[in-house]
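Input sequence (523 aa), recorded before submission:
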Amino acid sequence: MATLMAVALMANLMMNLEKVFCWLKAIRFAMKIETFKQGIFWYLTNVFYLSVIIIHNMEKVKIYNVVELKMGMVCTSSLFLHGIFNKRNILITVGKKIFKLYLLGGIVFFYGNTAFSQLPDAIYKDNIKAVRFHMYGNQESLPVYKMNSTDQLELNFDDLDANVKSYYYSFQLCDYNWKPVDISPFLYTKGFTQQRIVTYRYSSISLTRYTHYQATIPDRNTSLTMSGNYILKVFLDGDTSKLSFTRRMLVLEQKASIGGEVMQPFTPQLFKTHQKIQFTANINGLNTFSAAQQIKVVILQNNRWDNSIKDIKPTFVRGNTLEYNTENNCIFSAGKEWRWLDLRSLRLQSDRVQKADYKKNSTDIFLFTDSDRTAQRYVYFKDLNGMYLIETYETINPYWQGDFANVYFSLMPPNGVPYVDKDIYLSGQLTNYDFDDETKMIFNVEKGVYECKAFLKQGYYNYTYIAIDKNNMANRNDLEGDYWETENGYTILMYYKSFTDRADQLIGVGKINSRTDKPGLSF
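Predicted structure, C-alpha cell format:
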C-alpha cells in the first residue's frame, strides 16, 4: 500500500510539472522578455528544485524531482526508484539532486524566441506593404476610437503575393507604456475575440501585382468594453503564431478635458531651438487624491511614438484641475518643416524627381540629391508633419489602383565628407520611424553622397534624415536644424489607473498646434 501511495504521488507530481511548463509556454508570448526571464529562473530555482518529504511508518520517504530541460522542451527523465523494504520503513529515493538544465537549450528557449516578441508597430512579413491604420476618412489622424460613439477606424494594407489569404485580427490590451496586460480578452472584448478580414480586391492597372485588404474597426460583431492602449494584431488562418503585422490603437472614454499651448522655453540654450508644452486638465468623476501616482501623461509630437515624452507629474493639483507647467519638462526639439516627395503620378514627374526608369514590370524613381539644411534659415510651408497620404492623380481608387515604385534617395553631406562616427537614416512615417538596415543610408565614396532605396506606393510623402551616434544610439540629430517657430502638432494622452484597476484607462486626448498664423515668410 505504501509503495502504491508513493508511486501515485510521483505521478501526480509529474502531471503538475507538465501543466506548469505548458502554462509557462503560454504566458511566454504575453510577457516582456526581460520580465519572463526573471520570473522563470526564480521559478526554476525555488519550485522545480524541490524535495517532498513523506512520513510513513515513522520513517522518511524522500522524493526528488528529476527534470531535464532541453531546447525549450520539458522531458521528465527516468525516475529511479530504489526501494529498501522491511517491516518498519519504506525508502524511495528518486535521483537525488539530479536537475539537468542544458545551457544551450536554455539560451535557445529564453533568448531565441525574440522573433515572437510583439512590438506595438511592426511588420513581420516582407510581402506586407502600405499599412495604413487611422480614423475613417482621415489618413493624418491617430487611430483613436471613442467608446459608445459612432466613430470608426480604417485599416488598409497590401499583400504582394497577389493571392487570397485568410487574414484575421484581434486586440491585445496594454498599459500606458504598451506592455501587454495579463487579463483574459473576454474581460475587454464583447463578442468574437477574432475577426476575419473579408474585404479584399486584386490590384488593377498597376504594374506591381498585389491584393489589397481593407477592414472597418470595430466590427459590428465585436466591441471593446475597456478604454486604454490596444495592439491590433493581424495574422493568418486564425493562428496568432502566424503574425503578419501589428499596429497601435487607442480607445478613449472621455473623462478629462485638456487644453494647452506651445510656448518658447525660457532656458537660454533652448530658447531659439525648442518648443515647450504647457497644459491643464479638468477631470470629472474620478478621485485625484493621489494624482501623481494615478494619472499618467504621454505627449506625442506629430503622431510620433519614437520621441514621445511620458511620466510627467502635475505641477499643481487644484481640486479636479491638474496643471502641467514646469520649465524643464515637456520640451521637444522644434525641427524644421519636412522635406516632401510627390508620387501621386509616376508619369508626370514632380519637382523632386530627377529621372525615372520605366521597366516592363516596375518603375524606378531617382530623386534630386538633398543637402544638409542645418545652416539654412527657417521658412514656413505647409507639410504633413512627417506623415504620408496614399493618393493618385490618374485613378479612381488609389488603394487598389495605385502602383509601387523603387525610389532612390541621396544626401550630400557638407563638402562631400561622411559624418564622423554617425550613421545616417531615412526617416518619417514612410519608414515607420524605424532605424534598421533597410532605412540606413550607405555612403558612396565615388559620388560623395549617402544613398538608400525605398519601395513606396503612389502618394504624397514627407521625410527627413536622422544622424545617429554610432557609440550611443540614443543620441539622434535631425539634419534639418531646429527653429522654435516650426509648425508642429502635439497630442496629449491622459491615462488614469486607480489602485484597484489592472489596466490604465485612457480618459482624455488633447490636441494643440505650435502655430496658428502660418505666414509663409522667412524669419
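Checked by second reader. The CA atoms of residues 258 and 281 lie 4 Å apart.
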